């Protein structure tokens, strides 16, 4: 499910809730690309993502690449724990360029 709220005409925020998986990426792709094309800046809130898989990660990579191509600002915020886990596992934190706090368990 996507919850969309416009802050102003130049800045848009889209909150993704629930799944960001192979079962939802096709529907989300069009909404995210439309949000990106309609605004000079887009914020994707990932705080309510409960399931996240490789297809979801590919979608975020594609949207980030499209933003770069269009010269638009794209920020990912509120990373849920499942999002953080897969981004950490994939080694793509630097690619996204957003501040993340990945806490690793202590080995003590």
Please, could you describe this protein's structure?
Helices cover 42% and strands 31% of the residues. It is α/β, with parallel strands linked by helices. Helix 1 (25-38) packs parallel to helix 2. The termini are far apart. Mean pLDDT is 84; it is low at 4-10.
Strand order of the largest sheet: 1-2-3-4
Q: What percent of residues adopt helix (DSSP H or I)?
A: 40-55%
The CATH H-level superfamily is: STAS domain
What value does the Rg take, in angstroms? 14 Å
β-sheet strand percentage: 25-35%
Protein name: STAS domain-containing protein
InterPro entries: MlaB-like_STAS, MlaB_ABC_Transporter, STAS_dom, STAS_dom_sf
Write the layout of secondary structure elements.
Elements: E1 2-8, E2 11-20, H1 25-38, E3 41-52, H2 54-70, E4 73-77, H3 81-90, H4 93-96
Parallel strand pairs: 2-3, 3-4
Antiparallel strand pairs: 1-2
Helix pairs in contact: 1-2
How would you sum up this structure in a few lines?
Residues 14-108 form the STAS domain. The chain has helices at residues 25-38, 54-70, 81-90, 93-96, and strands at residues 2-8, 11-20, 41-52, 73-77.
Top keywords for this entry?
108 residues, alpha/beta, Transcription Regulator spoIIAA, four-stranded mixed beta sheet, 4 helices, 4 strands
